[in-house]
Amino acid sequence: MSNDTTLLFLHGVGTGDQADLWKSRLAASLARLGYPELDSVRVIAPKYAHALKDWDEREELPGLTVKHPSGDAAKRNRRDFERRVGAVEYRLGRHDRGGSLPGGDALVDLALGHPAFAQARNYVQDRQIRAQVLNRILSKLPTSGRLVVIGHSLGSVIAADLVRRLPVEVEITGMVTIGSPLANAGFGVDNLREVLKEPPVNLSWWVNFWNWHDPVCGRRGVSSVFPWMMDLRVRTDLGPDVHSAANYLAADVVADAIGFALFGSRSKELETIDRGLDIPLDSTEQLAVLALRYGHLIKSQLGGDQRDRFEGALRQVQAAAVESIMKRNADASRGTPSAIARLAFDYSDAGASVPEPLPARHLTKDDAVVPLTVFAAENMIRPFEIAVPVNKRQNAMRELTAEMGLGSQFGADVFDAAKRAHEVLSGGRGVDWIKWGALGVGAAALAVATGGLVLAAGAGLAGAAAITSALAAFGPGGMLGGLLTAGSLVAAGGGGIAYGLASPGTSAETLETVVARQLAAEILRKQHRLDPDPAVWRNLAETEIEVRRAYERLDEFSDESAPSLKEMKRKIVALERALKYLREQNLEPGASDAAHAGAESVA
After folding, report:
1. Is 218 helix (H, G, I), strand (E, B) or coil?
2. Three-state DSSP class for 145?
3. What is residue 429's three-state secondary structure?
4. Packing angle between helix 563-584 and helix 534-555, nearest 10 degrees?
5. Contact 153, 15 (CB under 8 A)
């Protein structure tokens, strides 16, 4: 960011003559963090202590120049603001609104009545003094350009009051409040809570810093009043200067927020990341790149508000996925492949562009069956949830498989196989695509039990230990963890998953989802004359045996109407239907050989 940005500091009661102190403290903190010198920035610190004491001539309160948008424009403004605040939170730390100090509000109310706080009381209660202060500040400000606002103590109240009264061509690139009493109802000047019920369109983001020991804050931030902004706690020792602006500005996290607003990101890691190494992707990295490519292709199918929301979610998902892979590789002393490194960007910079994955590399049809079956069912922007029409996802899948050299029809067949598998298990009913994608909370435990492969055999991630390690690295809740879990279940075989699916702790819905995906993979293989996976039949047959055993154990003493028995019966029906379909399609191991031998015998 260029240094044409103006820094506005709004002081609290009795601190108007301390501008040089806080400026030197902030400059030292910025230098320590590697930001440019503060001398390159125009600093305005208006003095209005006298104006807080009394008023000389009657002045009009400056009007609201920044109007709140309505309808879809209001939704877009709120979403864009939340995206920018999310980027700042990603950079500075987790939002912490605090609690409250018992009797804290009463203490602040009592303080307002004390002569030492007369200036604060005057601003809150005397409209003429308030108008005089605001007009004096506005007279010092430029009529256009970028503005960074710091408000300390009463200055934070003035800052909030000022935001919507600025010239319309002034953009606030960041507002930082410190030691603010705004959470106290006594400082809600002129219905300020209603005036700022939504983030103003001229405000990029607002972060408030509070200190546990600062009595003015009352052990809490101000997001209880303005829920769209962000609170962060500053941790310092108890002392006589705990409320001072200099004390807050000495904290690295406060200086980092101000430096980011003034100069943009100081991060150089992405510029010197080696652009990655010329090494092959492992199976997890392959899955991540392919999934992100599919996500970007889905985004290109969307429009309007849905596209905006999907793009924002995908931005965060990509940042988290790339960061987690890089961290995993660093912990394992492994280099980062260039295909991963090129997808990295500075998420803390809300304006940073998101690199799209290159067109998907070629996979054989055998290798593509499992990951694409998973993609058709899974949420590619987990943990966010946006109901994308199935035809949009299918169109994106067709584009993906065309890029992979498999032909667009293969992408259409992925969804057709999923539809057919669901119809088999549901007895011919239509597909509920939302339920089709719901694996349930026990899926990660099942994945660890499988020892299955995520991609094709030999891809490099195999066995329960590897699944456990991957889930520990990426977690089951995000996009990568969800894909690893789902992929291992689609490709799984053996007694581990049979016991897991048969367990009363696994719902019938989860079993149906796992079986449907395995069945879909087999249907897709048959459509394209690929060899069937014998593990699918073996898994279903072993699971049916285990479910029947579990049913018999429960049936011996349980009521006939027991919910657990109904769940077991539902599992048995699903497994019977799946096995019957495989048998009818000659997908039972040895069935194709027997059919071929029979045909030769007839001949």
Report:
1. coil
2. strand
3. coil
4. 150
5. yes
Out of 223-227, 296-300, 496-500, 526-530, pick the least confident. Answer: 496-500
Give 297: exposed, middle or buried? Use CB within 10 Å, 0-12, 13-18, 19+: buried
- 3-class state of residue 194 by DSSP: helix
Name residue 500's amino acid: G
**300 CB neighbour count, 10 Å cutoff:** 15
Tell me the CA distances in angstroms from 222 to 44, 163, 230, 413, one per residue in order: 25, 16, 8, 53
Assess whether pLDDT exceeds 50 at residue 2: no
Reported as a single tens digit per residue, the pLDDT across 209-231 is 999 888 888 888 999 899 999 99
CA nearest 513: which of 434, 425, 439, 428?
A: 439
φ and ψ of 201, to 5 deg: -70, -20
In this structure, what DSSP letter does residue 492 have? -
Rounded-to-integer distance, Cα 14 and Cα 120, Å: 10
Residue type, 122: N
* Beta carbons of 489 and 446 less than 8 angstroms apart: yes
Weakest mean pLDDT among 158-162, 200-204, 216-220, 245-249? 216-220
- Percentages helix, strand, coil for the chain (3-state, rounded to 5) are 55, 5, 40
Task: Please give the Cα distance from 428 to 467 (Å, whole number).
Answer: 35
**Helix or strand (DSSP H, E) at 171:** strand 169-178
Residue 582's alpha-carbon distances to 258, 324, 367, 372, 541, in angstroms, are 64, 39, 21, 21, 11
Query: pLDDT of 402-438, one tens digit each?
Result: 888 888 899 999 999 999 999 999 876 655 544 445 5
Per DSSP, the three-state class of 458 is coil
Task: Answer whether 22's CB lies under 8 Å from 279's CB.
Answer: no
In single-letter form, the type of residue at position 54 comes to: D
Q: Which helix (H) or strand (E) holds 178?
A: strand 169-178
For 263-298, the DSSP string reads: H-----TTTSSTT-BS----HHHHHHHHHHHHHHHH
Reported for 434-439, long-range contacts at CB under 8 A and 24+ positions apart, including other chains, are: 434/387, 435/509, 435/513, 436/377, 436/513, 436/516, 437/377, 437/378, 437/379, 438/509, 438/513, 439/482, 439/485, 439/486, 439/489, 439/510, 439/513, 439/514
Tokens of 480: 């990568």
What is the C-alpha separation between 447 and 166, in angstroms, rounded? Answer: 56
3-state secondary structure at position 584: helix
